[in-house]
Amino acid sequence: MNNNETPLRTSQNFLLDSDALTKLQNNDPTLTSLTVGIDSHYYDMDNTDGFLPHYNDWGKCGQIIGRNTHLVKLSFGQSHGIMFGNDREMDEDMCMGIVSKPKEPNEKQFRDFCNGLGKETVVLCTHPDHMLIH
Amino acid sequence: MDLVRRRLFCVHTPIICLYTNFVFTAMNRSIKELSFVSSLPPLIEGEQRGVTDGFGLAYTLMSDWLGNNSVEKLTMPWCDGECIQDNSGENRKLARALSSFNSLKHFVIEFTGDYRMGNYNDNTCEVANQIIDSLSKHPNLETVRFTFTKTSLGSSGYTSLSRLLADSKIKVLRLEGGLTGEGAVALSAMLEGNQTLEELILDDSNSRLSTAGCKAFLRLLLGNDSGSIMDTFNSNHTLQRLFSSDFRFTDSAGRWQLPDDLQLALHINTLCNKADAARFKIILGHNFTKGDFSPEPFDDMDLSVMPHVLAWMGRSNADVAPLYRFADADLCLMFKFVRGMAPTLFDSPASVSAGKRKLQQM
Questions:
Q1: Contact B30 A71 (CB under 8 A)
Q2: Closest residue, chain A, to B118 (C-alpha)
Q3: Of A38, A64, A69, A111, which to mutate for an interface test with B (greatest number of B Cβ within 10 Å)?
Q4: Are B353 and B235 contained in the same domain?
Q5: What percentage of residues in chain B have a pLDDT greater than 70?
Q6: Judgement on whether residues B309 and B275 belong to the same structural domain of the protein
Q7: Which of A5, B74, B198, B281 is the least buried, fewest Cβ under 10 Å from its Cβ?
Q8: What is the residue range of B139's domain?
Q9: Do A110 and B58 touch (CB under 8 A)?
Q10: Looking at residue B50, what is its pLDDT?
Q11: pLDDT digit string (tens) for B260-275?
Q12: In B, which residues are within 8 Å of A126 by CB distance?
């Protein structure tokens, strides 16, 4: 992790290994698999995995994953309707109609994530006349 | 500006560039498997029209990154949403985006989302032909899996699958569920010229290989019942499995449904190389090991071919030997063959000198 970089914030974190996010940001070689969003096993909650990035941190999450060099498997789990997080507002049903607009990750967050990934993409060129862009 | 500066730097310092190239190559080839365990529609705004909603856009957004990674396995879910509406536009987008996976080896569509959320969806959705067509363009593709009972193929899907089997070199095709009897017959026809597919896994709890399907696969693996030796020789010697190893398919009376000869044909393909498989199938299929030898299949052959036939018959393969009904069946076969062919080779079986003359003419 860059010294100037603030840690990645999450709304929900079901990662069984609580250090996983730190490992991700530190490009730790022992972290080879990651689930963004929640992979919820209804019948086997012990196997529920993943984390939901903070509403405003999807772009940062994409960047961190894009620059990681040890992840082998990347999964995308459920990002809606999991349960209430720190930055999510209650939905209508749970507040008996006295609610504001639900605040959940949507297309903007996913675009931010993909832009983050793209920013950190390393372009491979094999000819010495070409350049590698990082 | 930074790019120009780097490019100039690279042109003038090729050794450093080669070094950085090595470093960046290592950085660039990390993620091998990309998996979506849930459908994307909730993440994508706008009208939702079908099961592929979101994936087309998602992969398009990710295509720059995907193009520079070597993702070998892609898993996506199916049937989390409605599938009765036309979402061909999204399918086309998805198919186009799939071309970004330059290194794709394994493609899986599996039903996971609703099951994991404890909410079983009864929809069965067709896999769009555009998606299957896009897979044909991946030269390294080895495994295609459309799994669980929620996946089906329409007529256009079968047509695309036919093209996929003809154009690609996939080794494993898993179509677990949703396969009709006609589908099995169509699949066997698609495999007639195929030399790469080793496993066609059809089973799941609802899958049944109909009588017509069994016959079609028998024809594929052994040639026509009344066909010639060449029919058998040209049959498929690549396909090794039709069901997964833990599959125990029985009828209501608990009897095994897959015909013995179909199992045997698959087993032979598993045991030996294609040449030996062809030989063994001809020996078994044309009853050369049973009763008196009939030279009829060889009647039309040129005499000059006979020494090669004899040598070919005389080969033995320790891998398939246990499949014969008795030990030394190879030798018995040779004996039968020579004895049975004597009338053809020699005008008079008793006339050794005539036989010698005939052999000298070959």
A1: yes
A2: A42
A3: A69
A4: no
A5: 59
A6: no
A7: A5
A8: 32-290
A9: yes
A10: 54
A11: 788 888 989 998 888 8
A12: 21
Contacts of A35 in chain B (CB under 8 A): 37
SS3 readout for chain B: CHHHHHHHHHHHCHHHHHHHHHHHHHHHCCCCEEEECCCCHHHCCCCCCCCCCCHHHHHHHHHHHHHCCCCCEEEEECCCCCCCCCCHHHHHHHHHHHCCCCCCCEEEEECCHHHHCCCCCCCCEECCHHHHHHHCCCCCCCEEEECCCCEECCHHHHHHHHHHHHHCCCCEEEECCCCCHHHHHHHHHHCCCCCCCCEEECCCCCCCCCHHHHHHHHHHHHCCCCCCHHHHHCCCCCCCECCCCCCCCECCCCCECCCHHHHHHHHHHHHCCHHHHHHHHHHHHCCCCCCCCCCHHHCCCCHHHHHHHHHHHHCCCCCCHHHCCCCCHHHHHHHHHHHHHHHHHCCCCCCHHHHHHHHHHC
With bands split at pLDDT 50, 70 and 90, how would you rate the model's confidence at B119? very low
Distances (CA, A) of B144 to A114, B169, B184, B209, B261: 26, 11, 17, 20, 27
Q: Give me the pLDDT at residue B193, please.
A: 86
Set of chain A residues whose Cβ sits within 8 Å of the Cβ of B13:
none
The answer to whether residue A69 neighbours chain B at the CB level (below 8 Å) is: yes
Q: Do A74 and B20 touch (CB under 8 A)?
A: no
d(CA A20, CA B80): 29
Place of tokens 């329409």: B154
- Tens-of-pLDDT digits for all 134 residues of chain A? 665 678 888 776 777 676 888 899 999 999 999 988 877 766 667 777 788 888 888 899 999 998 888 999 998 887 765 544 444 444 444 434 433 444 567 778 888 888 888 766 544 333 333 333 33
A79 touches chain B (CB under 8 A): yes
Same domain, B164 and B305: no
pLDDT tens, position by position, B132-169:
888 888 889 999 988 655 556 777 778 888 888 988 88
User: Which pLDDT band, with edges at 50, 70 and 90, does B276 fall under?
Assistant: confident
CB nearest to B65's CB, from A43, A66, A104: A66
- Chain A residues closer than 8 Å to B17 by CB: 128, 131-132
> What total number of domains does chain B contain?
3
Inter-chain touch B38–A109, beta carbons under 8 Å: no
Phi, psi (deg, nearest 5) at residue A76: -115, 120
Test the A interface: residue of B7, B27, B66 with most A CBs within 10 Å: B27
